[in-house]
Amino acid sequence: MNSVNIGLLGLGTVGGGTVNVLTRNAAEIERRVGCPVRIIHAAARDLDKPRICDTGEITLTTDPREVVDNPDVHVIVELIGGDTLAQDLVLRAIAQGKHVVSANKALLAKHGSAIFAAARERGVMVAYEAAVGGGIPIIKALREGLAANRVEWLAGIINGTGNFILTAMRDEGRDFADVLAEAQRLGYAEADPTFDVEGIDAAHKLTLLATIAFGIPLAFEAVYTEGITRISREDVTYAEELGYRIKHLGIARRTPKGIELRVHPTLIPARRLIANVDGVMNAVVVKGDAVGPTLYYGAGAGDEPTASAVVADLVDVARAINCTPESRVPSLGFQPDAIEALPLLPMSEVESAWYLRMQVVDKPGVLAALTSIFADLEISIEAMVQKEPTAGESLVTLVLLTRTVQEQQMDQAMARFGELNFIFGDITRIRVEYLN
Amino acid sequence: MNSVNIGLLGLGTVGGGTVNVLTRNAAEIERRVGCPVRIIHAAARDLDKPRICDTGEITLTTDPREVVDNPDVHVIVELIGGDTLAQDLVLRAIAQGKHVVSANKALLAKHGSAIFAAARERGVMVAYEAAVGGGIPIIKALREGLAANRVEWLAGIINGTGNFILTAMRDEGRDFADVLAEAQRLGYAEADPTFDVEGIDAAHKLTLLATIAFGIPLAFEAVYTEGITRISREDVTYAEELGYRIKHLGIARRTPKGIELRVHPTLIPARRLIANVDGVMNAVVVKGDAVGPTLYYGAGAGDEPTASAVVADLVDVARAINCTPESRVPSLGFQPDAIEALPLLPMSEVESAWYLRMQVVDKPGVLAALTSIFADLEISIEAMVQKEPTAGESLVTLVLLTRTVQEQQMDQAMARFGELNFIFGDITRIRVEYLN
Prior knowledge:
Two copies of one chain form a homodimer. Chain A has 436 residues and is α/β, with parallel strands linked by helices. The first copy, chain A, folds into three domains: 4-134 and 304-338, Rossmann fold; 138-300, Dihydrodipicolinate Reductase, domain 2 (2-Layer Sandwich), CATH 3.30.360; 347-432, 2-Layer Sandwich (Alpha-Beta Plaits). The first copy, chain A, has helices spanning 13-24, 26-33, 64-69, 85-95, 105-122, 138-145, 160-172, 176-186, 194-197, 200-214, 233-241, 303-322, 366-376, 407-418, and strands spanning 4-9, 37-43, 59-61, 75-78, 99-102, 126-127, 151-157, 224-225, 244-255, 258-269, 281-288, 292-299, 351-361, 381-386, 395-402, 405-406, 423-432. In chain A, a hairpin with a 3-residue loop joins strand 11 (281-288) and strand 12 (292-299). At the A-B interface, helix 1, helix 2, helix 5, helix 6 and helix 10 of A face helix 1, helix 2, helix 5, helix 6 and helix 10 of B. Strand 12 of chain A pairs antiparallel with strand 12 (292-299) of chain B, so a sheet runs across the interface.
């Protein structure tokens, strides 16, 4: 196949992000798939609206059916939301033998059974990684990565708006209404925030997660749903004092008497990893009987994180229609002829900050000598702590953090320190990484 | 196809775990794949050794070539480790057109290029999810879930032994040698711990991760590797005082001048999620240009966590050879005819602990009345805090944590409390989940 051609319905935040990611990473994606993946046709309600993406190479229309009906389009990406028009268009695409990628959790949680049945009938794929957890590949983890397991339970922070509000209430000791208003100003919450703060959005997502975890029918109506609007800052504070955090969780659990499906504010022990997932970030814990607890963390919303999941689905579809089953995913993730011997950076040129610990004689001029060596080599000190000497000892321990420097600068500093006669024993050096 | 038949090489910890998971979850796995996946032939060095699994249904042999050559075997699972015999057997299986699943990071990091080329030539799959991060589906996340991204960097705690040692050094203020000895007693560290504590095992895993993140050739020899043997408990303590944790990280980073590949002890800010990954658990952070930072967490070793990854690969292979590309992964993860309408538990029967907050009149007998209602309904109190009343106020705030109870018990308690005349206003109730 020469290329996999995409028809895009919706050019809003996620649609724009999808155009941007597919354009910017076209080469990287082709290295993975073995052929180009490109958007050739797109529909938007208003063609004159300013966009976050360049649509120069794409045929635009206000009629989404034109895109669905375009015979050159192999895959339809549905990003218009809602569940009336979206459903019509998805079913129309399937009827024409087109694969579908959708980020529409409401549509799939409520009408997924009919859509998936139609797709099966017609032999096409309907992929929906972007419907839950933004860019986190949680659908893939559940359907494939954990396929060996009988899932016992899963619990997720699956609504970024709610988590942003609860995090700000805790960090800043503010009230719900106050933080909600800020979230609306920042664009993290809709003008009508009901879907997010009342847990309906989370219930849509939980429906999909529970279904693929346990192999049960989609059961959105059965999800118990309670919002976070009645959480007060007192509750947040008292929970903290007791060693807990309040998070808005979607929980699905297998019990001997039946499956639990529930979305509600929840106190969880502060030492749990998921209790430390803050702001608009999402995370899902899945407990499998073989693997034990696993956690998946990432941005739950936003143009490019969500586009990351949409495009991962497109790569999946493209690989399925473009490769043999055995070569679908190349062993090393990239096509064998696309493996590129990029230069490897010698360790001497690697940059990192440093932690240094040394024992020095406790006398005047020592710090001056050390800091002048650092200054000579243009190494900045981030922090320096001098530990009180033990009574009767003439050596003090000095602990330093440097700013980021090249490895060879630090090697030179070490060589210079080696010539000093007031440093006792070896200097301990450990790299520091901020991972941001 | 009637069933996918597995030949297993090695019946040690992971081999035994694989037998146990495939046996226990046979029905769940068949619901996902659409046909049984079963081990029919297995090789072990010593057939009389006691095992963690029941091998009653499996033909056993001491000659692994017998398993590889068995014409009824479709997939070979290589779990014998090392890189001499293992390589011969893997290449022999490929030459016979058999798919291979391996957990052998040393083999693949050093000889993967030849093995993957042979597999490509012969049109078979070589899957290796279990080689990195135990049960965490990190290979799948990188090769598929994040396929839209240009990966900027990744950093992982990818050796459980090292993380167990560093965690114990911090939590218990102990020395490296002391904790290592304990890890050896517990079976977390080998008699010769070099591979783990000197970072060689982590370097094998980093080699695989970096290759599939960037699409570069396997470059194990180029990985800078530094162990944790020289980390002292003082360093752990001082790092903590400065707001950092010491973790043994494998880091791969794309820089304008080249790719960095390095394994070394590293100070990371304590507030980072990965800084809070403790004990034998593993985690990998992957930063993609579209998705931003994502994190994958789970057990990095152990019989069943590793078996979880081995069996996930088997499911992948079985789906590839048993299904059409379009139906490879069913929409809901399970085969459409295997979706089961399990009973859904009514909310009244859901069990959880509770946080309660109420304002009560500050007078004698109030606590007695409350606690006797709890006692009547068999609700145990885990913690109770009475907040000092504001000067001049006659109401005090009472915060309670209960033990786990049925929702209907709590509803009854609320009804009884409603009849009391010393509770002012509404009672706030929030569920508590321990997530363990």
